[in-house]
Write a structure and sequence with these properties.
By secondary structure, the protein is of the alpha/beta class. The chain contains eleven helices and twelve strands. The radius of gyration is 21 Å and the shape is flat. It binds pyridin-2-ylmethyl trihydrogen diphosphate (2E6) and FE3-S4 cluster (F3S).
Length: 316
């Protein structure tokens, strides 16, 4: 038997589940305990197939629209948030519903509404079609929030009054790209009002910081996460921009392209905010099968954030 080649494995921290994801999954589990199956969930509770499949096995039914839910079963809204019209429709149908929107997304919803009430036109920096962007823009009437995705978009955005503007952002954007977009907004509209920096959450920021630390010293980066997970995809981009010529998203160990990794001496591993640690361990084990692995934990922050589940479930 030939000896396994040595491999330095830099394990980024923080990685994986954030407080909002943890809370959202708990909400579905507790709702199933309280009301029994089926409990409906509007959209993937978080963007991870393994998590969704596990909850489906316990009796959750995932749908994309509220119209697909019966009146007489509870429905949970995903962590990404929903337009105002969704809880309004559930209320009109007298449905039992629980909102699993991350509190840090709800905070942005409130910000947008507050600015609009003060008579300011809203600009959102976000990704078109992403459920969080749809949810945040949907806090105000259709057409009221202008979306910008890039610095170039800022040049073309057509505002009512440049003196009466405010902006909010999606929580999972690239910190560096967003800095440039905010700067472009402030240059074009000096009177624009916004959060201190942006609305990117602590978990997104910390995971990107950790990748910036591990990427330059690694031949490759693997991000455990789903293709529809915005924050996970941003981690791949951050890795690629910070010295990793090979940066890839992998859902499971079976998706690793071993041929592309041929000849590497070091690898960095992280996970998006919706990826369970079990899948990270699965990936590390797959490396151990092929390499003589030395693991070094690279921790750039310690997270102690926790969010409570809604009261209706606490009394279950
Ligand atoms: C809610 C808000 C932010 O695609 P995205 O990164 O937004 O979502 P997930 O489910 O991958 O991550 C958690 C999350 C939920 N982030
Ligand atoms: Fe919330 Fe950020 Fe996680 S907005 S769901 S804490 S990625």
């Amino acid at each position: 038997m030939t000896a396994k080649p040595p491999l330095m494995l830099y394990l980024a921290a923080p990685r994986g589940f954030c407080a909002g994801v943890d809370r959202a999954i708990k909400i579905v589990e507790m709702a199933l305990e309280k009301w029994g199956a089926p409990v409906y969930v509007r959209h993937e509770i978080v963007h991870n197939k393994f998590v969704v499949d596990g909850l489906r096995d316990k009796g959750a039914v995932f749908v994309e629209e509220l119209e697909e839910c019966p009146d007489d079963r509870p429905v949970i809204f995903s962590a990404h948030g929903v337009p105002k019209s969704v809880p309004a429709a559930a209320q009109a149908r007298e449905m039992v519903f629980v909102d699993a929107t991350c509190p840090l997304v709800s905070k942005v919803h409130i910000e947008a509404q507050r600015h609009a009430e003060a008579g300011l036109q809203m600009i959102m920096i976000g990704h078109k079609g992403h459920p969080e962007t749809i949810g945040t823009m949907g806090q105000l009437p259709e057409g009221e929030v202008l979306l910008v995705e890039t610095v170039e978009d800022v040049e073309h955005v057509d505002v009512r009054d440049p003196e009466r503007l405010a902006f909010v952002t999606q929580t999972t954007l690239s910190v560096d790209d967003t800095k440039d977009i905010v700067a472009a907004l402030q240059t074009r509209f000096p009177a624009i009002i916004g959060p201190h920096k942006e609305d990117i959450c602590y978990a997104t920021t910390n995971r990107q910081e950790a990748v910036k630390e591990v990427a330059p010293k690694s031949d490759a980066l693997l991000v455990v996460g789903a293709p529809n997970s915005s924050n996970s995809r941003r981690l791949v981009e951050v890795g690629a921009k910070n010295g990793c010529s090979y940066a890839q998203l992998v859902q499971r160990a079976e998706n690793i392209d071993w041929r592309a990794l041929d000849g590497i001496r070091s690898i960095a591993i992280t996970a998006g905010a919706s990826a369970p640690e079990l899948l990270v361990n699965e990936v590390i084990d797959a490396f151990r099968e092929r390499y003589d692995v030395t693991v070094e934990l690279v921790e750039t922050a310690v997270e102690r954030v926790e969010f409570k589940v809604p009261r209706v479930l606490r009394t279950a």
